[in-house]
Every structure is written in structure tokens, then in C-alpha cells.
Specification:
The protein is built from nine helices and 62 strands. The protein is mainly beta. It folds into six domains: 244 residues, Alpha-Beta Complex (Cathepsin B, Chain A), CATH 3.90.70.10; 102 residues, Immunoglobulins (Immunoglobulin-like, Sandwich), CATH 2.60.40.10; 184 residues, Jelly Rolls (Sandwich); 107 residues, Immunoglobulins (Immunoglobulin-like); 146 residues, Sandwich (Jelly Rolls); 99 residues, Sandwich (Immunoglobulin-like), CATH 2.60.40. The longest helix is centred in the first third of the chain and has 41 residues.
């Protein structure tokens, strides 16, 4: 009993030691090498190396990344720009721009204060450039911002808020308050004269928001260095030189740095970091444009314009009617009516319009629904309107509005004065054709809220003021609603149904928050119907939304620049409809400027996208991704859609495949009929790649007539046919994981960050029976030999917890081909499994799986599998193969050859009956040196080779060794051999 307990404790200790070693030592030593391999594989142009940051524990490295980006509502953000330069230099570096205008690199230390250092670095460079003081040794206090401001802490912060603090309070020099890597240092520790020496900035604005607009960034950096946020991945810590781009590792956190220049040829930003001069290129690095999200939400120090009311835009609105597939450009003219230089920045957005006819929970067949079908209700921060056309009520006697309504919105409870409701809906009326609106009060049912947070709150709502009434909560089902319109007897009446939500709590939090439904709208005067809509006429009502989303169908040329007094410029707005579906689209051009006396100008960009008469398109394809393993059957296919108004018939769809430019496959499918708006799936004959090469796939529509769009009639993609079945870096869907197998990046891989592990990155469990099966199987119908190769690392309880490599000809009955057990953890090792004997036996398809089993005692790290490959050749390392077709009549283990041997020898053996075969190498002391083979074999003459290495992959020493063949319950024999180095 004591021995058993000691044995378990021993192996538990060994397991813990290996876990610690692997995670904190082995992975650290391998990390740089894996990053270098990933750089090479991607063809990236940078160098990784060790530095003081890579030597830190993972949690301390992550602490260096403390930037928290601030997602600003564009309607509230001041988005600004500096003058557009027509001919920007191809290279700019403020460290060598007629002098060095960048202050020395600093070290934030063990504190997540990069947000602080980047903001202060921008202020320092701005001050030197603004004051034309090249020789200034200005050094401002990061500790002052950390201790006295509210922009963040050592756990992270926001660079934009740091600039706001410097704008309103100021910042003294480093000598006044030295940096101490500690956010708990009280502000009172600053020198008593800090206010007398504090530097302030005139203000700041965003030069980018959600999109990293390269022109905006370059024009800003041309003025002075600018802070930039990006996402740090594990490989970035090891940056040494070159142009960084992400190739390896997991997301570590957000980081803020200072962009000091660019290089057009490299398409890179030159950045100053805050990890000391002992990191990177003396504290600097270069990074590819747009990589890791760099360039979003960039705050820029600017000078305020004093003129006021200077900017105009013409026309004030664009309304277009286009056909699906069109791409056209329109102009917006901006004019500067002021006396100073006007700096502007224009951003395009899509305005979410959520009122739409829908059958969901409708009153009858179709009702107006203010909701999102994708989420089943309404979302956060909506302001949505549904408006009637202009109505003439000037000659009515007793005008009335009646409609059927249903609302299920956030409950009003929990509010505090002056608010008595959260999200809500109501009705507004305008008597001046929509120039102004006021809330109308219903006859029945009365509003249950008199001051709704969502409509009125200046920050969390839509800033319409205190006292906006409406309905909140749920009305319990469809109910009739009436309004007396007697006080609105005008010839210019517009009625608006409205719904507003605040920044939190919607259907995303409660599935019963369905939104606002309207139907059976009727404006009448006694028996006379003036207007009616039954939720099925899209054109008779106007839908308006507030809020901003990125508009992929809009693009601006010259969206940033400057206009001289009494001058103008033109913006080119491109409408691209190719990735849209026919519908109404509402865009917005938001133009900000350095004129702070006026709000941003909004130019609506509305588009009615119509169906073409004839348009057949390839909507979706079923083709391989970037890589395809050989001997793996694919079934090409496509979904074809009729976007046209008319039905289409009798056309063909062709699929072709080229290998290195030579045709290797062609098939055509005929389509008899596709109705308007419907889709048809076409399939082609299966394809099997027998050799590696660059494959080009094309699917093309043929024999079309009067087709409006040609761009969607052909699809082309490229794949690389390789021996690699799976490197586990991307999801392929090839594997069926059962019982614990999963892909993980917790231990790294042989190549890259990921590998397959028996228990998803954790120590494996007792009594496991887990399989990882290549579910598509391999097609061997066209080859006469095959070898499976894979890389592995493992540590298990020897001979008790085992990972078997198994194959099957029907995916039901499995044959053990190899086993991994014990300590094979010191390095990644490649293993080979010969499969030719299955082809010789008549198998045309074969499945492979990794089968891990454990007993009820000790658990350890388990087995890692990576870079599984298939080759149409015989093995070159360990071979298990039938040597001829004759079946032996006697058991035999032959003398190895050569003997004595150096490096490699060969063992041959004969088994007249099938059985579990095991071959073990022992030293002269009787100790196990190598578990060479453990497999179930059919009768035949077999052979296997030994490379002179032990179970750890280490070459054994010169001496006498024994090799033993055991066939469970049937045969055993041992022979002697001599190994000579």
C-alpha cells in the first residue's frame, strides 16, 4: 500500500514538474523559434529575438498592455483633421525631419500605463513643433497624469481622456513629479509649484474612429506625431527589427504608442514605444498599416478656429435610385464662408433604419415592426421614426388618428426623478412639414411615463430633454390606440411614430423585449379617411433612424483636408451596391471641422436599390480553402441565385480546375429553371488531388442572355494541394473529436501556435477513452503506397496511459498501428505509419484516428499531436509493412541487419497468425531503452527499423543491446545486437 501511494505521489510530482517546466521554461525557450518559423511560413519581413520583455512571466508581459480604446458615438465625437497635403513625402520620420522633434524613449515599468506615456509623448512632440523649439529638452510628468487624473491606472486607461485632463488641468515637468510605476502615489506628492509650470493643450479631436483611414493618419502625422492604439499579440513582445505584422500567438491586450512617421514602400508606421531603449529598435518599431487594428480611434492635438459658422455643404441631401450591381460617384461641395483656414474631416456612415413591414407577431399578415429580426427584438441605443407623408388637415372638423399598437419594452421601474421611464415609444406631430415636432398626447391609452430616460438623457439617451412622455414596459398584446388631432389643423401635418432605447438593456438581455409594433394606421375626419396604411405599403411611409454604423456601400475620396477662406472643395461619394440586397438604404455623411461654434454638418445619403430585369449570380460556392490535402476527396458545388425580376431558364454552370496552369478537371451542370428571387444548388463530380501543386478553381455561368451584372457570373479561388492534412492553426472541420480531444494553443505547436491535445490544454483525466478521427478518410483508389506522418510530444504513465494510432477500412473496425506512452516530451518528434499493406490488401479508402486511453490512477500532461501529413510513398523511418504476399507457416525473429551497426538497423520477423505485436529494446542491465512497436498485425513477413535512439529521442551509447518480439499469448523471442558509434 505504501509503495502504491509513494508511486502515485512520485508520478504526480513528476507531472507537476513537467507542467511547470513546459509552461514556464520549455515554452519560453521554444517561443522565439516558433515565432521565427511562423514569420517564415507567412513570408513576413521582421525578426524576432529575446529581450527583457520576453523573459517576463506571461502575466507581467500582459500588464504592459494597458490601453483601453474608447468607443465614441460619432455624433458626440469631435472628428477633426489637419490640412490635406497633395504631395506627402514617401517617407517621414520626426526623429530626422530637419532635426529630432521626438523626446527620448521612456520605460513604463511594471505598470499598465502605456495610455499615459503615449498621450504625454504626443504632447511633448506637439509642444516642440508648435513652439518651433528643436533644442528643447522638454520632459513632462507621466506620474502627474497617473496620480492626479481620472484617465486610468496601472491596470489600464484611455489616452484620449489623458489628453482631456492635460487640456483642462495641465501637466508639469518630470522634475516636479517623478515617475514611480505606482498609481497609489498621492497627487499631493507633486511639487507645490506645479500649476505655475504646467503646460496645457488647446484641445484635441479624433482623426479616425472605427476605420483606420490612412490618409487621415498621414496628414495628421505630417503635422506632429500622434498616439495610436492597437492590439498586442504574443509575438509582438519578441520584436527585434523589420516591419512587424502578426504571425503567432494569442491576444494579450490593448496598447498605445506614438506614431512618429511612415514609409510608403513598406506601407508601415514608425512608432515610439514605452518599453525602454532595450526593446525593439532602441525603443522603436515599424508596423504594417492596419495590422492589429492600429489606427482606430486616434486622438490628435489641434488648434481651434475662431471664425464661426464657416462650413456649408451642397447639395444638403442625396437621394438615389440604383439597380443592384451599380457603382456610381456623386459630388458634395464644401465651402468655407469664414475668414480663417477651415480644417475638416468627413466620415460616411449607414444609419440603421429598423421600422419595417414584418409578419413577426403581426396584427394580421403584416405589421410595422421596430425591431431587428436577427436578434428577435430591439437593441441598445436606438432612435427610430416611422412617418406619414405630409397631410392636409386644414379643412377638417374632428380629425383623429387611430391605429393598432403593441409594445414590449424595458420596464419603467427603478428610475429616479426627473426620470420615470427607461426605453419607450410615443407619437409626435409636426405642423410645418417636418421642420419641428412636438409630442402628441393620446386619447387612449394614456402615456404611463412622463419623462423618459432614453429620449431625454444627454449622455445615456438621445438628449431631447427632460419631460418627453411615452409608453414604457409592455401593453400585454395588441390594443387600439387613438389621438385627437383637433389641435393640429394645418395643411402641413406629419405624424411620427417614435421609439428610443438607451445604452443598456434590450432584447440582448431579455428575450421578451420585442420592440414596437404599429398597424392599421388611419387618419380620418368623421367618415372621411384622409390617410391609411396597413403595414404592407413600404413606399407610403418614411422610415428614419438615428445612430451610426459603418457603411460598406459608401466611400469618400478626399475626406480630409483644408479650405482657404471663401474657397471650396469637392468630395467624391461612391455608392457601391455589389454586396447589398435590394432594399432602401439610409446613409449619412458626417462633416466635422475645427469650427467649434457650430455642430457637425449631416448630409443624408439615401438610396433605393432596385432589382434588375435579368441577373443570375453565383451566390455561394463549395470549394477548398487556402490548402487542400492530397488524397482527400472534395465535391465542388455552388448556390446560384436569380436576383432579377424575371424567371430564368436553360443556362449552364461550369467548374474547372488547373494545376500549375494545366487543366486537370472540368465538369458542367445544367440549370433548367430558377424563379425570380430563388436559389438553386448545383453540384459537380468529385475531385481528388493526387499530387501537390497550385490549384486554380473557377465556377462560371454560361449561356446567359440580357444579364445585367457580369461581375457575379464567375468565381475564382486558389488552393495549395499539399501533403499537410492539418496543422491545427485554422478550423478545417476534418476531425471528429470525442471524449476530450480538442485544439489548443496553451502548449504551442510544432509549427505555429496550435496543436491537438488529449484534454484541451489540461492534465488528462482518469479512465479516459478519447478519439480524434479524420472523418473524411483518405482515398487510396489511385495509388499503390502511402505513409501517414505526424509530430507528437507526450508524457503519460508508461504502458498504462497510451495514445494509439489506429486505422480502419470502414471507420468501424480499428487496427492499432503505433502507440505513444511514457516520456516523449523533451522535443517534438515525427512519427511515420506505413499504410501500403492496406492498399495491397484491397482497401481503397482508409480512416485514421488517435485513440487515447487512461487507467484509474496517475494523470499527467498527455499527448500533443501536430502537423499530420499523408504521402503517396513508403516510410523512411519506422516501417511496418508486409514484405511479400506469402503467408508464413512458422513464427520467427531473424537476426538484425547490419550487426554490429551504426545509426540504423533492421529487424525482420514472420507471424503466421494475426495478433498484438510488441517489439522492445533492452540494455544489458535489462532496462527498457525503446518501446519500438506495439500494434495489431495481420499474418505475414514484416520488418521495422531502429535509429539507435531511446524513448526520449536521445542516441544510445556503444554497447550490447537486446531486441525482443512478443506476440501476445502466442510467441516470444529475444536476440542480441551490438551498437557502435
Amino acid at each position: 500500500m505504501k509503495k502504491t501511494i509513494l508511486f502515485k505521489l512520485y508520478w504526480s510530482l513528476i507531472t507537476l514538474v513537467f507542467v511547470f517546466y513546459f509552461q514556464n521554461t520549455a515554452i519560453a525557450s521554444d517561443e522565439i523559434e516558433q515565432i521565427k518559423q511562423a514569420i517564415k511560413a507567412k513570408g513576413a519581413n521582421w525578426i524576432a529575438g529575446e529581450n527583457w520583455v520576453t523573459k517576463l512571466p506571461p502575466e507581467e508581459r500582459r500588464r504592459l498592455c494597458g490601453a483601453i480604446p474608447e468607443p465614441i458615438d460619432p455624433s458626440l465625437a469631435k472628428l477633426l483633421s489637419i490640412p490635406l497635403i497633395d504631395s506627402l513625402p514617401p517617407v517621414l520620420d520626426w526623429r530626422d525631419n530637419n532635426g529630432n522633434w521626438v523626446t527620448p524613449v521612456k520605460n513604463q515599468g511594471n505598470c499598465g500605463s502605456c495610455w499615459d506615456f503615449a498621450a504625454v509623448a504626443q504632447v511633448e512632440s506637439w509642444w516642440k513643433i508648435h513652439n518651433a523649439n528643436l533644442d528643447s529638452m522638454i520632459d513632462l510628468s507621466e506620474q502627474f497624469v497617473l496620480s492626479c487624473g481620472d484617465a486610468g491606472s496601472c491596470d489600464g486607461g484611455n489616452g484620449a481622456l489623458a489628453l482631456t485632463f492635460i487640456e483642462t488641468v495641465g501637466i508639469p515637468t518630470e522634475a516636479c513629479f517623478e515617475y514611480q510605476e505606482n498609481d497609489e502615489i498621492p497627487c499631493s506628492d507633486a511639487c507645490s509649484t506645479w500649476a505655475d509650470e504646467a503646460i496645457t493643450i488647446p484641445g484635441w479631436g479624433w482623426i479616425t474612429l472605427e476605420e483606420d483611414i490612412i490618409d487621415n493618419i498621414k496628414n495628421a502625422v505630417y503635422r506632429h506625431p500622434v498616439s495610436a492604439h492597437f492590439t498586442v499579440y504574443t509575438d509582438f513582445f519578441s520584436y527585434s527589427s523589420g516591419v512587424y505584422e502578426y504571425v503567432w500567438g494569442e491576444e494579450e491586450g490593448g496598447h498605445l504608442v506614438l506614431i512618429v512617421g511612415w514609409n510608403d514602400e513598406e506601407q508601415s508606421w514608425i512608432c515610439k514605444n514605452s518599453w525602454s531603449e532595450q526593446w525593439g529598435l532602441q525603443g522603436y518599431f515599424r508596423i504594417k498599416w492596419s495590422n492589429c487594428g492600429i489606427g482606430r480611434y486616434m486622438p490628435f492635438i489641434w488648434d481651434e478656429m475662431a471664425g464661426g459658422s464657416a462650413l456649408t455643404a451642397s447639395p444638403p441631401q442625396l437621394d438615389l435610385s440604383l439597380i443592384f450591381g451599380d457603382s456610381i460617384s456623386k459630388n458634395i461641395t464644401l465651402k468655407n464662408l469664414g475668414q480663417d483656414l477651415l480644417q475638416y474631416s468627413a466620415m460616411d456612415y449607414e444609419v440603421p433604419v429598423m421600422f419595417h413591414p414584418d409578419s413577426f407577431m403581426a396584427w394580421d399578415n403584416m405589421s410595422w415592426w421596430c425591431g431587428d429580426p436577427q436578434i428577435g427584438g430591439y437593441g441598445d441605443h436606438w432612435l427610430q421614426y416611422l412617418q406619414t407623408p405630409v397631410l392636409d388637415l386644414s379643412n377638417t372638423d374632428s380629425p383623429e388618428l387611430s391605429w393598432m399598437g403593441f409594445w414590449s419594452i424595458e420596464d419603467p421601474s427603478g428610475t429616479e426623478p426627473p426620470w420615470d421611464g427607461w426605453d419607450g415609444c410615443n407619437v409626435w406631430v409636426s405642423v410645418d412639414s417636418g421642420n419641428t415636432f412636438n409630442v402628441a398626447y393620446p386619447t387612449s391609452p394614456q402615456y404611463n411615463c412622463q419623462s423618459m430616460w432614453s429620449f431625454g438623457h444627454p449622455e445615456q439617451g438621445w438628449n431631447l430633454g427632460v419631460g418627453v412622455p411615452g409608453w414604457g414596459g409592455s401593453c400585454g398584446g395588441w390594443i387600439p390606440v387613438t389621438f385627437d388631432l383637433s389641435s393640429y389643423k394645418s395643411e402641413n401635418v406629419i405624424i411620427r411614430f417614435a421609439m428610443a432605447s438607451d445604452l443598456a438593456f434590450s432584447v440582448l438581455d431579455d428575450p421578451t423585449m420585442y420592440g414596437f409594433f404599429v398597424d392599421e394606421i388611419k387618419v380620418s375626419d368623421g367618415g372621411q379617411v384622409i390617410f391609411e396604411n396597413h403595414g404592407d405599403d413600404l413606399l407610403s411611409m418614411r422610415r428614419i433612424g438615428r445612430g451610426f454604423e459603418l457603411a460598406d456601400w459608401l466611400d469618400i475620396t478626399r475626406g480630409v483636408g483644408a479650405i482657404q477662406p471663401n474657397d471650396s472643395t469637392s468630395l467624391d461619394i461612391t455608392f457601391n451596391t455589389r454586396n447589398l440586397t435590394p432594399d432602401y438604404y439610409y446613409g449619412l455623411l458626417l462633416i466635422n471641422s475645427n469650427d467649434t461654434t457650430m455642430p457637425a454638418i449631416e448630409v443624408p445619403l439615401n438610396m433605393n436599390l432596385r432589382l434588375p430585369d435579368h441577373d443570375i449570380a453565383i451566390e455561394e460556392v463549395w470549394l477548398p480553402g487556402e490548402n487542400i490535402p492530397i488524397l482527400f476527396t472534395i465535391e465542388p458545388g455552388a448556390k446560384i441565385k436569380n436576383y432579377g425580376i424575371n424567371n430564368e431558364s436553360n443556362f449552364d454552370v461550369a467548374c474547372t480546375i488547373l494545376n500549375n496552369g494545366q487543366p486537370i478537371y472540368s465538369d458542367t451542370s445544367h440549370v433548367s429553371l430558377i424563379l425570380s428571387g430563388k436559389s438553386e444548388i448545383v453540384k459537380f463530380q468529385p475531385f481528388l488531388a493526387l499530387e501537390t501543386g497550385d490549384l486554380d478553381f473557377s465556377i462560371t455561368l454560361l449561356n446567359l442572355f440580357d444579364d445585367y451584372n457580369s461581375y457575379n457570373n464567375k468565381f475564382h479561388s486558389s488552393s495549395l494541394a499539399t501533403y499537410l492534412v492539418d496543422g491545427f492553426e485554422t478550423e478545417t472541420g476534418y476531425w471528429s473529436f470525442q471524449g476530450g480531444w480538442a485544439v489548443t494553443d496553451k502548449f504551442g505547436g510544432h509549427n505555429g501556435s496550435f496543436s491537438a491535445h488529449v484534454n484541451d490544454g489540461k492534465v488528462y483525466s482518469n479512465n479516459m477513452d478519447a478519439t480524434m478521427t479524420f472523418s473524411p478518410g483518405f482515398d487510396f483508389s489511385s495509388i499503390d503506397k502511402a505513409t501517414l506522418k505526424f509530430w507528437s510530444r507526450y508524457i503519460t504513465e508508461p504502458d498504462k496511459d497510451v495514445c494509439y494510432v489506429e486505422v480502419s477500412g470502414d471507420s468501424l473496425y480499428w487496427i492499432k498501428m503505433d502507440s505513444l506512452s511514457g516520456n516523449g516530451f523533451s522535443k517534438w518528434t515525427q512519427y511515420e505509419i506505413g499504410l501500403t499493406e492496406f492498399i495491397n490488401t484491397g482497401y481503397t479508402k482508409l480512416w485514421v484516428r488517435f485513440h487515447f486511453v487512461s487507467d484509474s490512477s496517475t494523470t499527467m500532461l498527455g499527448t500533443l499531436i501536430d502537423d499530420v501529413e499523408i504521402y503517396p510513398e513508403t516510410p523512411t523511418y519506422v516501417v511496418n509493412e508486409v514484405t511479400n504476399e506469402s503467408i508464413p507457416t512458422e513464427w520467427n525473429l531473424y537476426q538484425n541487419y547490419p550487426n554490429p551497426f551504426n545509426m540504423t538497423t533492421r529487424f525482420e520477423y514472420s507471424i503466421p497468425k494475426a495478433g498484438d505485436v510488441k517489439i522492445v529494446i533492452y540494455n544489458i542491465k535489462g532496462e527498457v531503452v525503446r518501446n519500438l512497436l506495439e500494434i495489431y498485425l495481420e499474418p505475414g513477413h514484416h520488418f521495422i527499423e531502429w535509429d539507435g535512439c531511446d524513448n526520449n529521442g536521445i542516441l544510445v551509447g556503444t554497447g550490447i543491446y537486446f531486441y525482443q518480439l512478443k506476440v501476445k499469448g502466442k510467441f516470444s523471442n529475444t536476440k542480441k545486437m551490438i551498437f557502435m558509434k
